[in-house]
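pinned: reference chain
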Amino acid sequence: MCRAKKLSPGAATMSEPKVYFDACCFIDMAQASMSLPLNPGRENHVHACRSFLRAARAKPADALVYTSTATLVECLSVTDMTDPTNHQKILSDEVQRLFKGLLQSGVSGVVSVATTPMIAEGARDLRWKHGVTTKPMDSLHIAAAMKMGCTHFITTDTLKPTDVTQLAALGLVVTSADKIATLLPSKYLQTEIPAKGTGVPSRAASPAAPSR
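pinned: its structure tokens
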């Protein structure tokens, strides 16, 4: 069972960013925690994802970060791309601990959103009523983000420009985390070192500016 982080009244104010992490965010963070190569340009995105989680763990919270319980079935492995001609999937105990720490520990900062019938209908209606042509799993994530009132859908997956435009018209901006890191207070705009075995940042290192 996925244990969602409980929200208490006044946990965050209306001015704090409400963002949704696609499954690829957790895969990238786990991959970085394993010291494995990332896809080009992902480093700043990973740093920003960790900053959003740290802001979400603050008391009171400086951000709210959501993801679907369906993310559990997508976060199964990381990829060793050291040999560009022979990528290897890794499903080790360490990888499993990282994903459990991020998604099921209840302390990473992520709020888990159950896939209810209402969210499933919302995913369907993205196509029926709004012409959004994303894949079914992506539509479930997007519908969950909209149900929770998120303003930004954080992903490094490539969506069709027409879908990105339509989602923006519906109030949901599709972006990578580094492009909106400045929504956070300046104290979070820094590189962090993940605690071993959890994927959760434990202390700050040198400052790192978000990508523009």
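why pinned: The helical segments are 23-33, 43-57, 71-74, 93-103, 117-128, 136-147, 161-169. The mean pLDDT is 86.
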